[in-house]
Design brief:
The complex is a heterodimer of chains A (375) and B (294).
Chain A: H1 2-5, H2 8-23, H3 37-53, H4 60-81, H5 91-113, H6 119-148, H7 158-167, H8 169-204, H9 206-221, H10 228-235, H11 239-262, H12 267-275, H13 280-315, H14 324-333, H15 337-365, H16 370-373
Chain B: H1 2-43, H2 49-56, H3 67-80, H4 89-120, H5 122-137, H6 140-153, H7 159-182, H8 187-195, H9 200-234, H10 244-253, H11 257-288
Helix pairs in contact in B: 1-2, 3-11, 4-5, 4-7, 4-9, 4-11, 6-7, 7-9, 9-11, 10-11
The chains are: A mainly alpha (375), B mainly alpha (294).
Membrane topology (chain B): Multi-pass membrane protein
Organism (chain B): Pseudorhizobium pelagicum
InterPro entries (chain B): MetI-like, MetI-like_sf
Chain lengths: 375, 294
């Protein structure tokens, strides 16, 4: 019994394999390209082998490697078998997909329990575990949509989206240039700089701070994105109106966070600066701004997603015939869902890169902060 | 005491608000002036400066509506119309509010469940957390209208698609805040629970959950604002016929600027109300748990 408990995922995977054996063949009777018994038995052997290995007392690294190969090999073969047979998968197919997913889960669990003894190993693990997880989302998505024949309009499989991205690179590049490099970057820089400048001003003038802070707090909870149609009306259809929306959206988070950050320096450090007879600006530049940096970067991170959203949504209210928001709204009208998903994928990648750059800059600037010092 | 707090709190805020309204009037006059001048020239009307300013502030479709025009519009559409009327702001706000609340409820539950999973299952912690953060770099709001259109293609329409967008936007702050909150009990307290030989279940309900409450309410304030934004943007596609978002879109199609501003004000009032309600809930729970007011 305790042997079984070592890996419930393995036990369930074996059960699913047995169930699948009774439900063979993999594909329904009308499938145009039936799968040979050779391929089917390879898949079954892979899963059963991986599941059995998960009970054995072998080193975790080796076990993880075996599980990795078994789970992903089986998944790859399964998805390959559905090629040309979209919508004809039988219940055995889904049982085996579930079984290999369980092996993948077991693999992650094994990896998560490894205590790495080196820096490099730790980094690899920290990247590998989420990568496997992400890969399984894609695998389940692909197997689910193609196996069950989900209508293309509802949810295209990831492979079709990838193909679409490869085929329409020039269009995507033009959209990115219009939306990201013109509207988002300009709006982000101006909005953040303006918020920062007003925060410094409000910090200098107490009266202003008392008046601005409650209003800014209120404003940052409001659905500011609603000003998009107004901005389009004021500044025309081109990128300027989108940049204006981005400026308004990024201004308030920056203002609120910077004001909070400027109050973060401790009383002891301020007293020290006073005993050095430093004036306001010296204290600001040498003590209070560095102490405010974690807050400023927090705002920069929040704003990186807000800026993308603001620019894309503003494009729904009128654009020249280029831009990511324009493409999304017209292609959905023409039911070209794969193009829409391609734009979303590009936007997601850009959003993640944007966030990553800000996070790296934060590491470099606030290396002294407890949350970055690590161990 | 009261005069003092009046002086240090209310006075600065009122000054800034007054400055904003003054700037708004100025902008209204300046931005509407070219069109009005054009109108006067065509109609061969000559007017004094004061008359001219008065006219710029009372155009039916101004570029920048004056504050009093917006206030009058909000008042008329809120109090003078029947609640069921298509032009009533109460009606549109209610449509938006219902999907906001549904999405907020689902998002909060989902966020708490994810946080509990992350805190208790190590594999989830290592694999899911990076993706939760990555999920928020996807500008989901940008595809909200698309999700609504696609879901209505398979006959899922009305409240649910909008609520799903709100759910997606609101689960994140709750999940992140709750992970922090459930991990906030100190080692000492966890050890104490162990000396009581408390089960994981008891540790969860009697130590981790109460410790997470302040974090939960802070993130719920962010989440409720986010789900309102989600609901409004989800109403933008032409499929939606009611709600603050569709009111904005209709206003932008027919250049009904005053209506647009009124819808914006309605959305802001809604946001302020929702955040206040969550704040009151937080204070009630605090009092129930015996937290002493700071």
């Amino acid at each position: 019994m305790s042997y079984l408990l070592r890996s419930w995922q393995g036990a369930v995977a074996l059960l699913l394999c047995l169930l699948a054996l009774t439900q063979l063949p993999l594909l329904g009777p009308e499938a145009p390209l039936p799968v040979g018994s050779g391929a089917t038995s390879v898949i079954l052997l892979l899963i059963a082998g991986g599941a059995l290995a998960s009970f054995l007392p072998i080193p975790s690294a080796a076990l993880a490697a075996i599980l990795f190969v078994a789970a992903h090999g089986a998944a790859w073969l399964l998805i390959g078998s559905v090629d040309g047979n979209e919508g004809h998968a039988g219940s055995a197919f889904f049982l085996l997909v579930a079984a290999s997913w369980l092996l993948g889960w077991r693999c992650i669990t094994v990896l998560a329990d490894i205590e790495p003894n080196g820096r490099a190993a730790e980094t690899v693990l920290r990247l590998l575990i989420p990568a496997i997880f992400g890969a399984w989302i894609l695998i389940l998505w692909e197997a689910g949509t193609r196996g069950a024949g989900v209508p293309f309009i509802l949810l295209p499989p990831p492979s079709a989206i990838g193909e679409r991205i490869g085929n329409s690179l020039p269009i995507l590049a033009a959209d990115v240039r219009q939306t990201i490099f013109k509207a988002v970057l300009f709006g982000y820089v101006v909005g953040c700089a303006a918020g920062f400048a007003v925060a410094i001003l409000a910090d200098r003038v107490t009266f202003l701070r008392r008046g601005v802070l409650p209003i800014a707090n209120l404003m940052s909870a409001l659905p500011i994105i609603g000003v998009a149609p107004i901005m389009v009306m004021w500044f025309g259809f081109d990128w300027q109106s989108k940049a204006a929306v981005v400026i308004v959206m990024t201004f308030f988070p920056m203002l609120v966070n910077t004001i909070a950050g400027l109050g973060a320096a401790g009383a002891m450090e301020r007293d020290l600066m006073r005993s050095y007879a430093s004036d306001y600006w010296q204290t600001l530049v040498k003590l209070r701004l560095p102490a405010a940096m974690p807050f400023v970067f927090n705002a920069l991170k929040i704003n990186s997603t807000l800026a993308l959203i603001g620019a894309i949504v503003a494009e729904f209210f009128g654009t020249p015939i280029v831009g990511m928001g324009f493409r999304i709204s017209t292609e959905i009208g023409r039911m070209n869902v794969d193009m829409v998903w391609a734009e979303i994928a590009v936007a997601a990648v850009i959003g993640s890169v944007f966030y990553g750059v800000v996070a790296l800059a934060e590491r470099a600037t606030t290396f002294w902060h407890p949350s970055n010092r690590g161990g | 005491m009261t005069t003092d707090s009046l002086k240090t709190r209310a006075l600065p805020v009122l000054t800034v608000v007054a400055a904003i309204i003054a700037a708004w009037y100025l902008a209204a006059v300046l931005m509407n002036a070219p069109f009005q001048r054009d109108l006067d020239r065509r109609g061969d009307v000559t007017s004094t400066t004061m008359e001219f300013i008065g006219k710029t502030l009372s155009q039916p479709k101004p570029i920048v509506p004056a504050p009093h025009q917006v206030v009058v519009n909000v008042f008329e559409n809120t109090f003078l119309r029947k609640v069921t009327s298509n032009r009533s702001l109460v009606y549109h706000s209610w449509v938006t509010l219902s999907s906001t609340l549904a999405g907020f409820g689902m998002g909060t539950v989902l966020g708490i469940l994810i946080a509990v999973g992350i805190v208790h299952v190590k594999a989830l912690d290592r694999s899911l957390m990076p993706w939760i953060i990555a999920s928020q770099t996807v500008p989901i709001l940008a595809i909200a209208p698309m999700v609504v259109v696609v879901l209505s293609a398979i006959n899922v329409s009305g409240l649910i698609p909008k609520a799903l967008i709100s759910t997606y936007l609101s689960f994140f702050p709750v999940a992140v805040g709750m992970v922090k909150g459930l991990r906030s009990p100190e080692l000492m307290h966890l050890d104490l629970m162990r000396t009581y030989s408390a089960s994981p279940w008891q540790t969860f309900w009697k130590l981790r959950m109460p410790a997470a409450m302040p974090f939960l309410f802070t993130s719920m304030k962010v989440a409720v604002a986010a789900s309102l934004v989600g609901a409004i943007v989800a109403e933008l596609p032409t499929g939606a016929v009611a709600g603050i978002g569709s009111k904005l879109l209709a206003g932008s199609y027919y250049s009904q600027t005053i209506d647009m501003w009124a819808a914006l004000i309605a959305g802001s009032v809604l946001a302020a109300l929702l955040v206040t309600i969550v704040g009151i809930g937080s204070r009630l729970v605090d009092r129930r748990m015996g937290v002493k007011p700071a």
